[in-house]
Write a structure and sequence with these properties.
It contains 9 helices and 9 strands. It is 35% helix and 16% strand.
C-alpha cells in the first residue's frame, strides 16, 4: 500500500501567553521558519502543510511561509475547531496518515519524526507519539504525534466536547482505554526527559535565545548544549 503521510503544522498568531510568538526571532529567523525548515528534513513525509486559522492576524503567517517555502501548502480553517481544521486539510490532500506538529517546537527533529513514522508502521497502534516525555525518555519538543486519516475522520464525526475539538488528539488521551496508544525510547545520547524545548512563554523563549546554536543543530548537539543546565 502506498501511503500519503502529511505533516500538519498547527500554528496561529493569537497565543494568549506569548502573543505573536510565531514571528518572534530566534537567532535571526522567525520561530515558524525554524519549525517548517526542520520538519522538511524528514525523509518520510510526503507533504508539509501549515494549518492555521482564517483569523486576519494569521495573514502574515501565510504570506511569510509562501514567500520562504515554495513547497509548503497553507490551509486555513476554524480558529477553535482545530479538529475540523485538520480533517478538512487532510481530506483535501487525500492523506492516509497525519503527523501533528506543534509550532511551539522550533527544535523539532526531522529524524525523530521519521523514527515516529517507522514505529507507527511497524506496529499496530491507533495513536503514537514522541513529542513529550510520557512513558518514554524523550526531551519535550523534538518529536510529534501520528494517527491514520481513518481515525481522524472518526474523531471528526464523533467528538462533541469543545475542548476535544480544540485540542486535536485530546479525545484519544482522555479515553486511553478505548485506543491503542504507543510510544518508544529515543537513542541514549538524547534521552534527557527533563529537558524542555517548547516555546510557550517568554521565559521559554528567553531560555532558548540565550544559547548559541543555529537552525541546523542536531538533537545530539542540542542536548549536549542544554543538559549542562540540569546539573
Amino acid at each position: 500500500m502506498k501511503y500519503n503521510i502529511i505533516a500538519l503544522i498547527q500554528a496561529r498568531m493569537g497565543s494568549n501567553r506569548l502573543p505573536n510568538k510565531m514571528m518572534l526571532s530566534l537567532h535571526g529567523k522567525p520561530i515558524i521558519e525554524w519549525v517548517v525548515y526542520r520538519v522538511l528534513k524528514s525523509k518520510k513525509i510526503n507533504q508539509v502543510i501549515l494549518a492555521t486559522s482564517t483569523n486576519y492576524e494569521n495573514d502574515i503567517l501565510e504570506s511569510y511561509i509562501q514567500k520562504v517555502f515554495k513547497n509548503v501548502y497553507v490551509f486555513r480553517g476554524s480558529e477553535n475547531d482545530v479538529l475540523n481544521r485538520f480533517y478538512e486539510t487532510a481530506k483535501y490532500i487525500q492523506a492516509t496518515h497525519i503527523i501533528r506538529i506543534c509550532a511551539d517546537n522550533p527544535l523539532i527533529d526531522g529524524k525523530e519524526i521519521d523514527n515516529l513514522i517507522d514505529f507507527y508502521l511497524k506496529n499496530n497502534f491507533d495513536y503514537v507519539y514522541n513529542h513529550i516525555p510520557k512513558n518514554n525518555s524523550y526531551p519535550d519538543g523534538l518529536g510529534a504525534e501520528m494517527i491514520s486519516f481513518e481515525l481522524l475522520e472518526k474523531l471528526e464525526n464523533s467528538v462533541t466536547l469543545k475542548s476535544e475539538r480544540e485540542h486535536v488528539f485530546l479525545h484519544i488521551t482522555n479515553n486511553s482505554d478505548l485506543f491503542k496508544i504507543g510510544t518508544f525510547e529515543p537513542e541514549k545520547d538524547i534521552a534527557y526527559p527533563k529537558l524542555r524545548f517548547d516555546v510557550d512563554t517568554f521565559k521559554d523563549y528567553y531560555y532558548l535565545s540565550m544559547k548559541d546554536f543555529d537552525i541546523d543543530i542536531s538533537s545530539k548537539t542540542l542536548v549536549e548544549l542544554f543538559k549542562r543546565d540540569l546539573n
